[in-house]
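Minutes, project check-in

Agenda point 3 was the complex the collaborators sent over. CS summarized: two entities, 496 residues total, and the question is how they sit relative to each other. Sequences were read into the notes so everyone works from the same version.
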Amino acid sequence: MFPFNFEWIWDMSHMVFHGGLWYALSIIGMGMTYCIIKAVVDTCRGKGRHH
Amino acid sequence: MDSALIPDGVKRCPISRFALGIVIVGAVLLWGVFAMLLVWIKGLNQTNMNNAYGFALWIWADLGVIALGGGAFFTGFLRYIVGKDELKNIINYAVLIGFICYSSALLILAIDIGQPLRGWFIFWHANVHSMLTEVAFCLSCYFGVLCVEYIPLLLENRQIDRVPFFHNLAHNMHEIMAVFAATGAFLSFFHQGSLGGVAGVLFGRPFGYREGIFIWPWTFFLFTWSAAACGPCFTILVTKLTEKIAGKKLVKDNVIELLAKISGWMLATYIVAKIIDTWYWAVVTAPSKGYALMDFYSGNPGSVYKIWLLAAEIVLGGVVPALILITAKGRRNSTALWIAVILASGGVLLNRWVMVLQVLAVPVMPFASWAMYFPSWQEIATTILPVAYGIILIMFSYRYLPIFPQEAELNPIERPGSGALESVQEDTAREADAAQDTDLAPASA
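CS then shared the predicted structure for the full assembly.
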């Protein structure tokens, strides 16, 4: 999973498999981070208070 | 008692009836949890799996729910990437069904691996030459995507939505949902395919083995294709069941019809590809390995593995529902639609059964005989467990979350005192006006 795992080899299989995994995890992680930070900013600006 | 939690403008059954339903289904759930604990505490000796059946009922259930849950990724793909806007009225339910199916699949895998405490090994010490590693990666990531798609629904609960931060968070998540939907479609393509690829690459098992392109056998593409075709059929089936149980219409006919039409064409093209694949396998691939078609369907005396199984999968589970769904007359006839979505869902389950269990049943040595298997009660209970869990989650979600955006419009509530039917459309319009004032449209819009 990580280059520091003892069985890690810098070959095509590891790069494709783990590249795909980290690509997907990055999109999910960055997407959620963006949403949370924007929600904090929006809330501080008073949006959504009509509820 | 819980009226403050129920979405605006809709009516729900009394809490006592709801609680009774939860208790009944909860009893089944507890039975499954008991069996699950037995397996975890005592080990896989609680099952009837053996040297011939390393994959058994659980793996079939896994592949089955993953195929049926394909409605979430394909509906999301159609809604957010292709731009079929009408599907916004059923996407919430498709996501919920997908969430249930994939969480069930992960639960079943957690039971099946025997040592769940070592479940993380597949990520940490990944075997990058295994299709199942790809399945584990994509399945877990896609479950993450489904959680991201389900969270805004939870945040739209009437009370949670009052908190400005949660309201803003749900709104922001809806805004970039297309990114998550695209990621989900990408992940689903690969894990659905790799599940098919597992059977297709078994060159020592001529019943499952297929040729293909590069590293991908034809079963890779057929599994993805069938999930995209039959997943939406299962979404329609559960929606229709929910409408029957709730006793009211929840989604407009044009939405169901659009989804049924797309599923129908997907199913029609899939079944043509499946017939070609079966024909090529029967006359070229299997003979090249020393088998004739009927060798796979000879079975033991009394065995279910006969040629009717192949006919049932292709004709009943594929051709018939495809013909119903691609014709406007078939889709618009309520009975025909019910039959089509039941047959399509059953057809894909039968396909997964055959590709998991018949592959293992067929003898591959001259001295071997057909391997038979019947699951233990623990396996059956733990397979029913996700069904009970799914029903409970649907009950709670339907009661407390705005799953069906068209429900209020389709079922106006009579206001006491007003003496007239006040359409909840007006409520929705008022809410939209209020939202416009604050520069925030309703998150479901």
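Noted in discussion: Chain B has one domain: 3-412+420-437.
Follow-up: revisit at the next meeting once the mutant set is ready.
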